[in-house]
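Ticket #4471: complex job returned nothing on first submit. Input attached below:
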Amino acid sequence: MSASSVIRGPVFVVGDNIDTDQIIPAQYLTLVPTIPEEYEKLGSYALIGLPDGQGRFVPEGAAKTPYAIVIAGRNFGCGSSREHAPIALGAAGAQAVVAESYARIFFRNCVATGELYPVESPVRLVEAFQTGDEAEIDLDASAITNLRTGQRLALNALGDARPVIDAGGLFAYARATGMISQPAS
Amino acid sequence: MPMTMTEKILARASGRTAVGPGDNVWVNVDVLMTHDVCGPGTIGIFKREFGKDAKVWDPEKVVIIPDHYIFTRDQKCHRNVDILRDFVREQGIPHYYDVGGKNYKGVCHIALAQEGHTRPGEVLFGTDSHTCTAGAFNQFATGIGNTDAAFILGTGKLLVKVPPTMRFEFEGAFPPYVLAKDVILHIIGDIGVDGGTYKAMEFVGEAVRGLTMEERMTLCNMVIEGGGKNGVLEADDVTLDYVRARTGKAFEPVAADPGASHVFHRRYDASAIEPTVATPHSPDNKATAHALRDVRLTRAYIGSCTGGKITDFINAARIMRGRRVTVDTFLVPATTEISQGLHTETVGGETLAAIFEAAGCQLSPDASCAACLGGPKDTFGRINGPEVCISTTNRNFPGRMGSKEGQVYLASPYTVAASAVTGRITDPREFLS
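Support reply: We reran it on our side without changes. The output follows.
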Protein backbone atom coordinates (compact mmCIF):
# COMPACT_ATOMS: atom_id res chain seq x y z
CA MET A 1 0.00 0.00 0.00
CA SER A 2 1.11 3.58 -0.51
CA ALA A 3 1.45 5.81 2.48
CA SER A 4 -0.64 8.50 0.78
CA SER A 5 -3.47 9.73 2.92
CA VAL A 6 -6.04 9.99 0.14
CA ILE A 7 -7.76 7.11 -1.64
CA ARG A 8 -9.97 8.16 -4.49
CA GLY A 9 -12.05 6.15 -6.93
CA PRO A 10 -15.39 4.52 -7.64
CA VAL A 11 -17.09 2.52 -4.89
CA PHE A 12 -18.70 -0.93 -4.93
CA VAL A 13 -21.55 -1.26 -2.42
CA VAL A 14 -22.48 -4.49 -0.63
CA GLY A 15 -24.65 -5.33 2.41
CA ASP A 16 -24.23 -6.86 5.88
CA ASN A 17 -22.38 -10.08 6.79
CA ILE A 18 -20.41 -10.41 3.57
CA ASP A 19 -18.59 -13.63 4.42
CA THR A 20 -15.30 -14.98 3.14
CA ASP A 21 -17.07 -17.55 0.94
CA GLN A 22 -18.60 -14.64 -0.97
CA ILE A 23 -15.30 -12.74 -1.08
CA ILE A 24 -13.39 -15.75 -2.40
CA PRO A 25 -15.30 -19.06 -2.74
CA ALA A 26 -13.57 -22.17 -1.44
CA GLN A 27 -13.03 -23.68 -4.89
CA TYR A 28 -10.38 -21.00 -5.52
CA LEU A 29 -8.44 -21.71 -2.32
CA THR A 30 -6.24 -24.09 -4.26
CA LEU A 31 -4.45 -20.92 -5.42
CA VAL A 32 -1.44 -20.12 -3.23
CA PRO A 33 -1.16 -16.35 -2.61
CA THR A 34 2.66 -16.30 -2.40
CA ILE A 35 2.95 -17.59 -5.99
CA PRO A 36 2.75 -14.38 -8.08
CA GLU A 37 0.56 -15.66 -10.94
CA GLU A 38 -1.82 -17.31 -8.44
CA TYR A 39 -1.97 -14.05 -6.45
CA GLU A 40 -3.10 -12.29 -9.63
CA LYS A 41 -5.64 -15.03 -10.32
CA LEU A 42 -7.11 -14.66 -6.81
CA GLY A 43 -7.69 -11.00 -7.59
CA SER A 44 -9.71 -11.86 -10.68
CA TYR A 45 -12.13 -13.86 -8.49
CA ALA A 46 -12.62 -11.23 -5.76
CA LEU A 47 -16.26 -11.09 -4.59
CA ILE A 48 -17.31 -13.60 -7.24
CA GLY A 49 -19.33 -15.42 -4.60
CA LEU A 50 -21.87 -12.61 -4.23
CA PRO A 51 -25.40 -13.67 -5.15
CA ASP A 52 -26.17 -13.24 -8.84
CA GLY A 53 -27.69 -9.90 -9.71
CA GLN A 54 -25.39 -7.85 -7.47
CA GLY A 55 -23.03 -7.09 -10.35
CA ARG A 56 -19.42 -8.06 -10.83
CA PHE A 57 -16.66 -6.48 -8.74
CA VAL A 58 -14.12 -7.63 -11.32
CA PRO A 59 -15.51 -7.63 -14.86
CA GLU A 60 -15.63 -11.01 -16.57
CA GLY A 61 -12.29 -11.78 -18.20
CA ALA A 62 -10.53 -8.93 -16.38
CA ALA A 63 -7.81 -9.26 -13.74
CA LYS A 64 -8.47 -5.96 -11.97
CA THR A 65 -11.48 -4.17 -10.53
CA PRO A 66 -12.51 -0.68 -11.56
CA TYR A 67 -13.57 -0.08 -7.92
CA ALA A 68 -10.97 1.32 -5.52
CA ILE A 69 -13.25 1.18 -2.48
CA VAL A 70 -15.76 -1.35 -1.11
CA ILE A 71 -18.60 0.07 1.01
CA ALA A 72 -20.22 -2.47 3.31
CA GLY A 73 -22.54 -2.84 6.28
CA ARG A 74 -21.92 -4.83 9.45
CA ASN A 75 -19.57 -7.76 10.06
CA PHE A 76 -17.65 -7.62 6.77
CA GLY A 77 -15.37 -10.63 6.24
CA CYS A 78 -17.07 -13.03 8.62
CA GLY A 79 -16.48 -16.75 8.32
CA SER A 80 -13.22 -18.41 7.56
CA SER A 81 -9.70 -17.35 8.49
CA ARG A 82 -8.58 -17.56 4.87
CA GLU A 83 -6.07 -14.81 4.19
CA HIS A 84 -7.04 -15.29 0.55
CA ALA A 85 -9.97 -12.93 1.29
CA PRO A 86 -8.15 -9.62 1.87
CA ILE A 87 -5.53 -10.76 -0.64
CA ALA A 88 -8.15 -11.28 -3.38
CA LEU A 89 -9.54 -7.79 -2.78
CA GLY A 90 -6.06 -6.25 -2.71
CA ALA A 91 -4.84 -8.22 -5.72
CA ALA A 92 -7.88 -7.01 -7.65
CA GLY A 93 -6.76 -3.46 -6.99
CA ALA A 94 -9.08 -2.41 -4.16
CA GLN A 95 -7.38 -0.10 -1.69
CA ALA A 96 -9.89 0.15 1.14
CA VAL A 97 -13.06 -1.27 2.60
CA VAL A 98 -15.32 1.00 4.61
CA ALA A 99 -17.73 -0.98 6.79
CA GLU A 100 -19.68 -0.50 10.00
CA SER A 101 -17.81 -3.42 11.56
CA TYR A 102 -15.50 -6.30 10.68
CA ALA A 103 -15.12 -9.90 11.62
CA ARG A 104 -12.04 -10.11 13.79
CA ILE A 105 -9.86 -12.43 11.70
CA PHE A 106 -10.55 -10.56 8.45
CA PHE A 107 -9.58 -7.25 10.06
CA ARG A 108 -6.39 -8.77 11.43
CA ASN A 109 -5.55 -10.33 8.07
CA CYS A 110 -5.96 -6.95 6.32
CA VAL A 111 -3.42 -5.45 8.69
CA ALA A 112 -1.03 -8.42 8.65
CA THR A 113 -0.94 -8.56 4.84
CA GLY A 114 -1.12 -4.80 4.30
CA GLU A 115 -3.39 -5.55 1.34
CA LEU A 116 -6.02 -2.92 2.06
CA TYR A 117 -7.26 -0.50 4.72
CA PRO A 118 -10.24 -1.86 6.73
CA VAL A 119 -11.79 1.43 7.79
CA GLU A 120 -14.67 1.52 10.26
CA SER A 121 -17.58 3.88 9.88
CA PRO A 122 -19.54 4.94 12.97
CA VAL A 123 -22.67 5.25 10.83
CA ARG A 124 -24.29 3.10 8.17
CA LEU A 125 -22.98 4.06 4.73
CA VAL A 126 -24.59 1.59 2.37
CA GLU A 127 -27.56 3.85 1.76
CA ALA A 128 -25.38 6.94 1.27
CA PHE A 129 -23.54 5.41 -1.69
CA GLN A 130 -24.43 3.68 -4.94
CA THR A 131 -22.09 1.37 -6.78
CA GLY A 132 -20.13 3.51 -9.21
CA ASP A 133 -20.20 6.70 -7.15
CA GLU A 134 -16.84 8.45 -7.05
CA ALA A 135 -15.58 8.79 -3.47
CA GLU A 136 -12.58 10.09 -1.62
CA ILE A 137 -11.25 8.74 1.67
CA ASP A 138 -8.88 10.95 3.64
CA LEU A 139 -7.15 8.68 6.14
CA ASP A 140 -5.44 11.56 7.96
CA ALA A 141 -8.74 13.36 8.44
CA SER A 142 -10.68 10.08 8.98
CA ALA A 143 -13.43 11.04 6.57
CA ILE A 144 -15.07 9.87 3.36
CA THR A 145 -16.73 12.11 0.80
CA ASN A 146 -19.24 10.99 -1.79
CA LEU A 147 -18.17 13.15 -4.73
CA ARG A 148 -21.52 12.60 -6.50
CA THR A 149 -23.63 13.91 -3.62
CA GLY A 150 -21.00 16.02 -1.89
CA GLN A 151 -21.81 14.36 1.45
CA ARG A 152 -18.81 14.11 3.80
CA LEU A 153 -18.93 11.55 6.61
CA ALA A 154 -16.57 10.98 9.52
CA LEU A 155 -14.79 7.62 9.87
CA ASN A 156 -13.13 5.98 12.85
CA ALA A 157 -9.37 6.44 12.91
CA LEU A 158 -7.34 3.33 12.04
CA GLY A 159 -5.01 3.96 14.95
CA ASP A 160 -2.06 1.60 15.31
CA ALA A 161 -3.22 -0.46 12.32
CA ARG A 162 -2.54 2.40 9.90
CA PRO A 163 1.29 2.46 10.02
CA VAL A 164 1.40 -1.33 9.66
CA ILE A 165 -0.68 -1.20 6.47
CA ASP A 166 1.23 1.88 5.25
CA ALA A 167 4.44 -0.14 5.57
CA GLY A 168 3.01 -3.06 3.60
CA GLY A 169 2.03 -5.43 6.37
CA LEU A 170 3.26 -7.02 9.58
CA PHE A 171 6.69 -8.16 8.41
CA ALA A 172 7.52 -4.98 6.48
CA TYR A 173 6.46 -2.91 9.48
CA ALA A 174 8.42 -5.05 11.93
CA ARG A 175 11.51 -4.72 9.77
CA ALA A 176 11.09 -0.97 9.22
CA THR A 177 10.74 -0.36 12.93
CA GLY A 178 13.61 -2.66 13.94
CA MET A 179 11.47 -5.36 15.55
CA ILE A 180 12.95 -7.91 13.12
CA SER A 181 16.55 -7.69 12.02
CA GLN A 182 16.74 -10.34 9.32
CA PRO A 183 16.41 -9.10 5.75
CA ALA A 184 13.77 -10.69 3.56
CA SER A 185 15.29 -13.22 1.18
CA MET B 1 -8.04 -8.76 39.82
CA PRO B 2 -9.79 -12.14 39.59
CA MET B 3 -9.34 -13.64 36.11
CA THR B 4 -11.50 -15.71 33.76
CA MET B 5 -10.21 -18.96 32.26
CA THR B 6 -9.18 -17.19 29.04
CA GLU B 7 -7.35 -14.46 30.95
CA LYS B 8 -5.51 -17.02 33.06
CA ILE B 9 -4.31 -18.96 30.04
CA LEU B 10 -3.10 -15.80 28.29
CA ALA B 11 -1.42 -14.53 31.48
CA ARG B 12 0.49 -17.78 31.84
CA ALA B 13 1.43 -17.86 28.14
CA SER B 14 2.74 -14.29 28.28
CA GLY B 15 4.68 -14.77 31.50
CA ARG B 16 2.58 -12.32 33.49
CA THR B 17 0.89 -12.65 36.82
CA ALA B 18 -2.27 -10.98 35.54
CA VAL B 19 -3.87 -9.72 32.33
CA GLY B 20 -7.17 -8.00 31.68
CA PRO B 21 -9.44 -7.44 28.67
CA GLY B 22 -7.86 -5.11 26.11
CA ASP B 23 -4.26 -5.84 27.12
CA ASN B 24 -2.02 -6.56 24.13
CA VAL B 25 0.35 -9.37 25.09
CA TRP B 26 2.93 -11.52 23.31
CA VAL B 27 2.07 -15.13 24.00
CA ASN B 28 4.26 -18.20 23.63
CA VAL B 29 2.53 -20.66 21.33
CA ASP B 30 2.18 -24.30 22.40
CA VAL B 31 0.86 -25.64 19.08
CA LEU B 32 0.54 -24.17 15.58
CA MET B 33 -1.71 -26.17 13.27
CA THR B 34 -2.02 -25.73 9.52
CA HIS B 35 -3.54 -27.67 6.62
CA ASP B 36 -3.44 -28.03 2.86
CA VAL B 37 -5.44 -24.87 2.09
CA CYS B 38 -3.43 -22.37 4.14
CA GLY B 39 -0.19 -24.29 4.77
CA PRO B 40 1.42 -23.63 1.37
CA GLY B 41 0.80 -19.88 1.63
CA THR B 42 2.06 -19.83 5.21
CA ILE B 43 5.22 -21.68 4.19
CA GLY B 44 5.67 -19.22 1.29
CA ILE B 45 5.56 -16.24 3.65
CA PHE B 46 7.83 -17.97 6.19
CA LYS B 47 10.50 -18.53 3.53
CA ARG B 48 10.13 -15.07 2.04
CA GLU B 49 10.43 -13.34 5.41
CA PHE B 50 12.83 -15.53 7.39
CA GLY B 51 14.93 -16.83 4.49
CA LYS B 52 14.80 -19.96 2.37
CA ASP B 53 17.03 -21.88 4.78
CA ALA B 54 15.19 -20.72 7.91
CA LYS B 55 14.13 -23.28 10.51
CA VAL B 56 10.82 -23.30 12.36
CA TRP B 57 11.00 -22.31 16.02
CA ASP B 58 10.16 -25.78 17.32
CA PRO B 59 9.28 -28.67 14.95
CA GLU B 60 7.62 -30.56 17.82
CA LYS B 61 5.03 -27.77 18.19
CA VAL B 62 4.00 -27.62 14.53
CA VAL B 63 1.14 -29.91 13.51
CA ILE B 64 0.25 -30.23 9.81
CA ILE B 65 -2.97 -32.00 8.86
CA PRO B 66 -4.04 -32.04 5.20
CA ASP B 67 -7.83 -32.40 5.17
CA HIS B 68 -9.63 -29.99 2.88
CA TYR B 69 -9.05 -30.98 -0.75
CA ILE B 70 -7.78 -34.52 -0.73
CA PHE B 71 -10.05 -36.80 -2.73
CA THR B 72 -10.15 -34.80 -5.95
CA ARG B 73 -8.53 -34.90 -9.36
CA ASP B 74 -7.65 -31.19 -9.11
CA GLN B 75 -3.90 -30.97 -9.78
CA LYS B 76 -3.33 -27.81 -7.71
CA CYS B 77 -4.65 -29.67 -4.65
CA HIS B 78 -2.02 -32.36 -5.13
CA ARG B 79 0.66 -29.74 -5.74
CA ASN B 80 -0.31 -28.11 -2.41
CA VAL B 81 0.04 -31.37 -0.49
CA ASP B 82 3.47 -31.82 -2.12
CA ILE B 83 4.49 -28.39 -0.76
CA LEU B 84 3.52 -29.60 2.75
CA ARG B 85 5.48 -32.83 2.30
CA ASP B 86 8.63 -31.03 1.18
CA PHE B 87 8.42 -28.64 4.12
CA VAL B 88 7.85 -31.38 6.68
CA ARG B 89 10.84 -33.31 5.36
CA GLU B 90 13.12 -30.29 5.27
CA GLN B 91 12.11 -29.11 8.76
CA GLY B 92 11.92 -32.51 10.46
CA ILE B 93 8.34 -31.93 11.64
CA PRO B 94 7.16 -35.12 13.41
CA HIS B 95 3.42 -34.39 13.57
CA TYR B 96 2.42 -34.63 9.93
CA TYR B 97 -0.57 -36.72 8.90
CA ASP B 98 0.09 -37.45 5.25
CA VAL B 99 -2.44 -38.24 2.59
CA GLY B 100 -2.61 -41.67 1.04
CA GLY B 101 -1.22 -43.73 3.88
CA LYS B 102 -2.06 -45.20 7.25
CA ASN B 103 -1.11 -41.97 8.96
CA TYR B 104 -3.83 -39.94 7.21
CA LYS B 105 -6.37 -38.59 9.70
CA GLY B 106 -8.85 -36.19 8.08
CA VAL B 107 -10.49 -33.06 9.48
CA CYS B 108 -7.84 -31.15 11.40
CA HIS B 109 -9.87 -30.01 14.42
CA ILE B 110 -11.03 -33.53 15.24
CA ALA B 111 -7.67 -35.11 14.39
CA LEU B 112 -5.90 -32.62 16.67
CA ALA B 113 -7.99 -33.85 19.58
CA GLN B 114 -7.79 -37.54 18.70
CA GLU B 115 -3.99 -37.38 18.37
CA GLY B 116 -3.53 -35.65 21.73
CA HIS B 117 -2.58 -32.17 20.47
CA THR B 118 -5.36 -30.37 22.39
CA ARG B 119 -4.33 -29.97 26.03
CA PRO B 120 -5.80 -27.96 28.93
CA GLY B 121 -4.17 -24.65 29.77
CA GLU B 122 -2.31 -24.34 26.46
CA VAL B 123 -2.38 -21.86 23.58
CA LEU B 124 -3.23 -23.25 20.13
CA PHE B 125 -3.36 -21.27 16.90
CA GLY B 126 -4.48 -22.67 13.59
CA THR B 127 -4.90 -21.34 10.05
CA ASP B 128 -8.55 -22.25 10.15
CA SER B 129 -11.40 -20.39 11.80
CA HIS B 130 -12.77 -23.53 13.46
CA THR B 131 -9.57 -23.90 15.49
CA CYS B 132 -11.79 -22.54 18.29
CA THR B 133 -13.13 -26.12 18.60
CA ALA B 134 -10.22 -26.93 20.92
CA GLY B 135 -11.49 -24.51 23.55
CA ALA B 136 -13.57 -27.49 24.67
CA PHE B 137 -10.34 -28.79 26.20
CA ASN B 138 -9.93 -25.80 28.53
CA GLN B 139 -7.38 -24.09 26.31
CA PHE B 140 -7.09 -20.86 24.33
CA ALA B 141 -7.55 -21.74 20.67
CA THR B 142 -8.31 -19.48 17.74
CA GLY B 143 -7.95 -19.11 13.98
CA ILE B 144 -5.39 -16.88 12.28
CA GLY B 145 -4.28 -16.01 8.75
CA ASN B 146 -1.19 -17.12 6.85
CA THR B 147 0.91 -14.08 7.76
CA ASP B 148 0.38 -14.48 11.50
CA ALA B 149 1.01 -18.22 11.16
CA ALA B 150 4.27 -17.56 9.31
CA PHE B 151 5.30 -15.19 12.09
CA ILE B 152 4.67 -17.96 14.63
CA LEU B 153 6.64 -20.47 12.54
CA GLY B 154 9.64 -18.19 12.77
CA THR B 155 9.31 -16.91 16.33
CA GLY B 156 6.94 -19.12 18.34
CA LYS B 157 5.10 -16.00 19.48
CA LEU B 158 2.09 -13.93 18.53
CA LEU B 159 0.70 -10.60 19.72
CA VAL B 160 -2.88 -11.00 20.91
CA LYS B 161 -5.41 -8.73 22.53
CA VAL B 162 -6.96 -10.26 25.64
CA PRO B 163 -10.69 -10.62 24.91
CA PRO B 164 -13.44 -9.82 27.39
CA THR B 165 -15.44 -12.93 28.32
CA MET B 166 -19.11 -13.66 27.65
CA ARG B 167 -20.50 -16.28 30.03
CA PHE B 168 -23.22 -18.68 28.94
CA GLU B 169 -24.56 -20.73 31.83
CA PHE B 170 -26.88 -23.70 31.43
CA GLU B 171 -28.72 -24.82 34.53
CA GLY B 172 -30.40 -28.21 34.82
CA ALA B 173 -30.08 -30.82 32.07
CA PHE B 174 -30.62 -30.75 28.32
CA PRO B 175 -33.61 -32.82 27.15
CA PRO B 176 -32.69 -36.16 25.51
CA TYR B 177 -33.75 -34.89 22.06
CA VAL B 178 -31.48 -31.82 22.26
CA LEU B 179 -27.83 -31.92 21.14
CA ALA B 180 -24.97 -29.44 21.53
CA LYS B 181 -25.64 -28.26 17.96
CA ASP B 182 -29.12 -27.10 19.01
CA VAL B 183 -27.58 -25.24 21.95
CA ILE B 184 -24.98 -23.36 19.92
CA LEU B 185 -27.48 -22.52 17.14
CA HIS B 186 -29.79 -21.20 19.86
CA ILE B 187 -27.00 -19.03 21.29
CA ILE B 188 -25.95 -17.68 17.87
CA GLY B 189 -29.58 -16.87 17.17
CA ASP B 190 -29.67 -14.92 20.42
CA ILE B 191 -26.48 -12.91 20.01
CA GLY B 192 -26.29 -12.72 16.19
CA VAL B 193 -23.40 -13.56 13.88
CA ASP B 194 -21.37 -10.65 15.26
CA GLY B 195 -22.56 -10.82 18.87
CA GLY B 196 -19.31 -12.36 20.08
CA THR B 197 -16.89 -10.38 17.91
CA TYR B 198 -13.52 -9.95 19.67
CA LYS B 199 -14.86 -11.81 22.72
CA ALA B 200 -14.25 -15.10 24.51
CA MET B 201 -17.38 -17.23 24.93
CA GLU B 202 -17.33 -19.53 27.94
CA PHE B 203 -19.89 -22.26 28.51
CA VAL B 204 -20.57 -23.39 32.05
CA GLY B 205 -23.23 -24.98 34.22
CA GLU B 206 -24.52 -28.38 35.16
CA ALA B 207 -25.90 -29.16 31.69
CA VAL B 208 -22.55 -28.41 30.01
CA ARG B 209 -20.71 -30.64 32.49
CA GLY B 210 -23.08 -33.43 31.46
CA LEU B 211 -21.90 -33.34 27.81
CA THR B 212 -19.44 -35.78 26.22
CA MET B 213 -16.14 -34.42 24.95
CA GLU B 214 -17.43 -34.61 21.38
CA GLU B 215 -20.53 -32.58 22.23
CA ARG B 216 -18.40 -30.00 24.04
CA MET B 217 -16.33 -29.69 20.87
CA THR B 218 -19.49 -28.95 18.86
CA LEU B 219 -20.33 -26.16 21.30
CA CYS B 220 -16.93 -24.46 20.96
CA ASN B 221 -16.64 -25.23 17.23
CA MET B 222 -19.31 -22.70 16.27
CA VAL B 223 -18.33 -19.76 18.46
CA ILE B 224 -16.77 -18.33 15.28
CA GLU B 225 -20.25 -18.27 13.72
CA GLY B 226 -21.19 -15.92 16.58
CA GLY B 227 -18.09 -13.85 15.79
CA GLY B 228 -16.27 -15.10 18.89
CA LYS B 229 -12.50 -15.12 19.23
CA ASN B 230 -12.43 -18.31 21.29
CA GLY B 231 -14.73 -20.62 23.18
CA VAL B 232 -13.70 -22.19 26.46
CA LEU B 233 -14.93 -24.77 28.95
CA GLU B 234 -13.85 -25.87 32.39
CA ALA B 235 -11.70 -28.98 32.65
CA ASP B 236 -13.18 -31.93 34.54
CA ASP B 237 -12.81 -35.71 34.58
CA VAL B 238 -14.39 -35.98 31.13
CA THR B 239 -11.69 -33.67 29.76
CA LEU B 240 -8.82 -35.26 31.63
CA ASP B 241 -9.85 -38.82 30.72
CA TYR B 242 -10.03 -37.94 27.02
CA VAL B 243 -6.71 -36.10 26.96
CA ARG B 244 -4.75 -38.55 29.12
CA ALA B 245 -5.86 -41.44 26.92
CA ARG B 246 -4.25 -39.66 23.96
CA THR B 247 -1.08 -37.97 25.17
CA GLY B 248 1.63 -38.52 27.74
CA LYS B 249 2.51 -34.82 27.75
CA ALA B 250 2.15 -32.87 30.98
CA PHE B 251 -0.42 -30.07 31.08
CA GLU B 252 -2.00 -27.81 33.65
CA PRO B 253 -5.70 -26.89 33.45
CA VAL B 254 -6.99 -23.46 34.49
CA ALA B 255 -10.02 -22.57 36.58
CA ALA B 256 -11.66 -19.16 36.72
CA ASP B 257 -11.06 -17.12 39.86
CA PRO B 258 -14.14 -16.51 42.00
CA GLY B 259 -15.47 -13.07 41.17
CA ALA B 260 -13.94 -12.91 37.65
CA SER B 261 -15.84 -10.35 35.61
CA HIS B 262 -17.77 -10.92 32.41
CA VAL B 263 -18.88 -8.47 29.78
CA PHE B 264 -22.07 -10.50 29.34
CA HIS B 265 -23.70 -13.21 31.48
CA ARG B 266 -26.78 -15.12 30.45
CA ARG B 267 -28.41 -17.99 32.32
CA TYR B 268 -30.42 -20.51 30.35
CA ASP B 269 -32.84 -23.15 31.53
CA ALA B 270 -31.26 -26.12 29.73
CA SER B 271 -34.53 -28.05 29.71
CA ALA B 272 -36.21 -25.33 27.63
CA ILE B 273 -33.86 -25.62 24.61
CA GLU B 274 -35.59 -27.03 21.54
CA PRO B 275 -34.35 -28.72 18.36
CA THR B 276 -33.05 -25.64 16.53
CA VAL B 277 -32.35 -24.90 12.87
CA ALA B 278 -30.53 -22.03 11.14
CA THR B 279 -32.32 -21.15 7.89
CA PRO B 280 -30.57 -19.83 4.73
CA HIS B 281 -28.30 -17.91 4.46
CA SER B 282 -26.99 -17.11 7.92
CA PRO B 283 -26.20 -19.16 11.05
CA ASP B 284 -28.18 -16.69 13.19
CA ASN B 285 -31.47 -17.19 11.32
CA LYS B 286 -32.92 -19.17 14.19
CA ALA B 287 -36.09 -21.25 13.98
CA THR B 288 -37.33 -24.37 15.71
CA ALA B 289 -37.33 -27.56 13.65
CA HIS B 290 -41.04 -27.84 14.40
CA ALA B 291 -41.82 -24.42 12.90
CA LEU B 292 -40.10 -25.43 9.64
CA ARG B 293 -42.03 -28.69 9.21
CA ASP B 294 -43.37 -27.63 5.79
CA VAL B 295 -39.92 -27.08 4.26
CA ARG B 296 -39.30 -29.75 1.61
CA LEU B 297 -35.74 -30.98 1.16
CA THR B 298 -33.80 -32.51 -1.71
CA ARG B 299 -30.80 -33.72 0.29
CA ALA B 300 -29.24 -34.21 3.69
CA TYR B 301 -25.59 -34.08 4.74
CA ILE B 302 -23.85 -35.35 7.88
CA GLY B 303 -20.18 -34.49 8.24
CA SER B 304 -17.47 -31.89 9.05
CA CYS B 305 -15.66 -30.81 12.21
CA THR B 306 -19.03 -29.69 13.55
CA GLY B 307 -21.19 -32.69 12.79
CA GLY B 308 -19.05 -35.59 11.55
CA LYS B 309 -17.80 -37.03 14.84
CA ILE B 310 -18.54 -40.56 16.04
CA THR B 311 -21.21 -39.35 18.45
CA ASP B 312 -22.89 -37.46 15.58
CA PHE B 313 -23.13 -40.69 13.59
CA ILE B 314 -24.34 -42.66 16.62
CA ASN B 315 -27.09 -40.08 17.12
CA ALA B 316 -28.06 -40.17 13.44
CA ALA B 317 -28.13 -43.98 13.53
CA ARG B 318 -30.53 -43.96 16.50
CA ILE B 319 -33.08 -42.34 14.22
CA MET B 320 -32.22 -44.05 10.92
CA ARG B 321 -32.12 -47.60 12.29
CA GLY B 322 -34.89 -49.62 10.64
CA ARG B 323 -35.91 -46.66 8.45
CA ARG B 324 -35.17 -45.48 4.90
CA VAL B 325 -34.11 -42.01 3.84
CA THR B 326 -36.30 -40.37 1.21
CA VAL B 327 -33.78 -37.77 -0.05
CA ASP B 328 -30.13 -38.13 -1.13
CA THR B 329 -28.22 -38.40 2.12
CA PHE B 330 -24.44 -37.96 2.19
CA LEU B 331 -22.35 -39.07 5.16
CA VAL B 332 -18.72 -38.00 5.56
CA PRO B 333 -16.81 -39.09 8.66
CA ALA B 334 -14.47 -36.36 9.90
CA THR B 335 -11.51 -38.66 10.49
CA THR B 336 -10.25 -42.14 9.67
CA GLU B 337 -10.74 -43.13 13.32
CA ILE B 338 -14.41 -42.23 12.92
CA SER B 339 -14.58 -44.12 9.58
CA GLN B 340 -13.38 -47.21 11.40
CA GLY B 341 -15.78 -46.54 14.26
CA LEU B 342 -18.72 -46.76 11.85
CA HIS B 343 -17.87 -50.45 11.50
CA THR B 344 -17.36 -51.14 15.22
CA GLU B 345 -19.86 -48.91 17.03
CA THR B 346 -23.36 -50.33 17.24
CA VAL B 347 -26.89 -49.17 17.91
CA GLY B 348 -29.43 -51.89 18.76
CA GLY B 349 -26.90 -54.58 17.87
CA GLU B 350 -26.23 -53.30 14.33
CA THR B 351 -23.12 -51.43 13.23
CA LEU B 352 -23.57 -47.83 12.22
CA ALA B 353 -22.35 -48.68 8.70
CA ALA B 354 -25.00 -51.41 8.37
CA ILE B 355 -27.72 -49.08 9.63
CA PHE B 356 -26.76 -46.34 7.17
CA GLU B 357 -26.49 -48.77 4.27
CA ALA B 358 -29.89 -50.26 4.99
CA ALA B 359 -31.30 -46.74 5.26
CA GLY B 360 -30.04 -45.94 1.77
CA CYS B 361 -27.41 -43.34 2.71
CA GLN B 362 -24.33 -42.61 0.59
CA LEU B 363 -21.35 -43.11 2.87
CA SER B 364 -18.02 -41.57 1.85
CA PRO B 365 -15.22 -44.10 2.19
CA ASP B 366 -12.86 -41.19 2.82
CA ALA B 367 -12.60 -38.81 5.76
CA SER B 368 -12.21 -35.09 4.93
CA CYS B 369 -13.86 -31.67 5.02
CA ALA B 370 -15.62 -32.67 1.77
CA ALA B 371 -18.64 -30.54 0.81
CA CYS B 372 -18.94 -28.54 4.03
CA LEU B 373 -17.18 -25.75 2.15
CA GLY B 374 -18.01 -26.74 -1.40
CA GLY B 375 -14.50 -27.24 -2.71
CA PRO B 376 -13.45 -28.53 -6.12
CA LYS B 377 -16.31 -29.50 -8.46
CA ASP B 378 -15.82 -33.25 -7.96
CA THR B 379 -16.06 -33.10 -4.13
CA PHE B 380 -18.29 -35.77 -2.53
CA GLY B 381 -21.71 -34.37 -1.63
CA ARG B 382 -21.02 -30.91 -3.14
CA ILE B 383 -24.14 -28.89 -3.97
CA ASN B 384 -24.01 -28.32 -7.72
CA GLY B 385 -27.48 -26.90 -8.35
CA PRO B 386 -30.66 -25.61 -6.71
CA GLU B 387 -30.64 -28.18 -3.90
CA VAL B 388 -32.38 -27.67 -0.57
CA CYS B 389 -30.08 -29.32 1.94
CA ILE B 390 -30.24 -29.90 5.68
CA SER B 391 -26.78 -30.31 7.13
CA THR B 392 -24.88 -30.91 10.36
CA THR B 393 -22.15 -28.49 9.16
CA ASN B 394 -21.41 -24.99 10.41
CA ARG B 395 -22.15 -22.40 7.72
CA ASN B 396 -25.02 -21.73 5.36
CA PHE B 397 -23.73 -18.62 3.62
CA PRO B 398 -24.68 -18.26 -0.07
CA GLY B 399 -22.65 -20.78 -2.05
CA ARG B 400 -20.92 -22.22 1.02
CA MET B 401 -21.54 -25.85 0.04
CA GLY B 402 -20.98 -25.21 -3.68
CA SER B 403 -23.63 -23.65 -5.91
CA LYS B 404 -25.06 -20.22 -5.08
CA GLU B 405 -28.43 -21.68 -6.08
CA GLY B 406 -28.31 -24.05 -3.10
CA GLN B 407 -30.10 -23.45 0.19
CA VAL B 408 -28.61 -24.87 3.36
CA TYR B 409 -30.39 -25.42 6.69
CA LEU B 410 -28.09 -26.12 9.65
CA ALA B 411 -29.27 -28.56 12.30
CA SER B 412 -28.28 -31.28 14.76
CA PRO B 413 -27.55 -34.88 13.71
CA TYR B 414 -30.92 -35.91 15.20
CA THR B 415 -32.82 -33.30 13.20
CA VAL B 416 -30.88 -34.00 9.99
CA ALA B 417 -31.49 -37.75 10.30
CA ALA B 418 -35.19 -37.30 11.05
CA SER B 419 -35.50 -34.89 8.12
CA ALA B 420 -33.67 -37.27 5.76
CA VAL B 421 -36.27 -39.92 6.58
CA THR B 422 -39.31 -37.72 5.96
CA GLY B 423 -37.94 -35.47 3.22
CA ARG B 424 -39.02 -32.34 5.08
CA ILE B 425 -37.56 -30.55 8.11
CA THR B 426 -38.58 -32.69 11.05
CA ASP B 427 -38.40 -32.30 14.80
CA PRO B 428 -36.58 -35.44 16.00
CA ARG B 429 -39.16 -35.91 18.77
CA GLU B 430 -41.32 -37.47 16.03
CA PHE B 431 -38.89 -40.42 16.10
CA LEU B 432 -37.31 -40.38 19.57
CA SER B 433 -39.59 -41.91 22.14
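Chain B has 14 helices and 20 strands. Closing as resolved unless it happens again.
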